[in-house]
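DM from R.C. (forwarded with permission)

"hey, sorry to bug you on a friday — could you get me a structure for this? deadline for the figure draft is monday and I only need the backbone to look sensible"
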Amino acid sequence: MKCVKEYRLSYTERAKKIVDSLTLEEKVHLMSGTMSLERMIKDMKEDPERHYNYVPYPAGGIKEKGIPPLLFCDGPRGVVCGTGKSTCFPVPMLRGATFDVNLEERIGRAIGKEIRAYGGNFFGGVCINLPYNPGWGRSQETYTGDRDGAEVVQMYVGFKNSKVDRPVKLLRGFKRVELKAGESKQVSISCPVEKLCWYNPETNAWELEKMDYEVYIGTSSDNRDLLQGKITLN
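My reply, with the result:
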């Protein structure tokens, strides 16, 4: 898919050239919305179905520079645009409580398709922080809560380049991490070289292959939950 990180980064140099060509006024314009409160109220009075964000709200954009406007669609339980046409998903806090990353990715893709169907290109529906605002809502806007928790970080090593019959990947280390509400931590997991060896019955010895080993870090053995790297032993 073209939405992958590598594809987006391929436009870095082009984006830098465009930014360097902009005046200060043009840069400020890119941070400005074009939908006024007066227009929003007028639209809603003229048509009861035209509620807040009935259509994607434009912001910024400079046609002469080849910069399209940001077309904002709010959330977070789904796309706000339209009336009775968008999917209403469970609130993010409830989805976050499932700890099901794959389910959330599927929901995100579904929301993305509906945004494109409305002509939008930006979703502003999920916050990571938890605002304590009685006039707003901690019940639907965010993933996180105000409770401490724990996570188990796991490290797997893959052996697909092995010349002998070995598992695709094996758990080679893990660490349980206690986290305060809203806290993040860096974790170090070591893997002694002995854990990369295999037992050769012909030589009656443990042997270490010189090859590339895949290293996976995540919270489960599912590839979709894992970050991948590699180490090379020569």
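R.C.: lifesaver. The mean pLDDT is 86.
me: no worries. The beta strands are 57-59, 70-73, 122-123, 149-158, 169-179, 198-200, 205-207, 212-218, 226-232.
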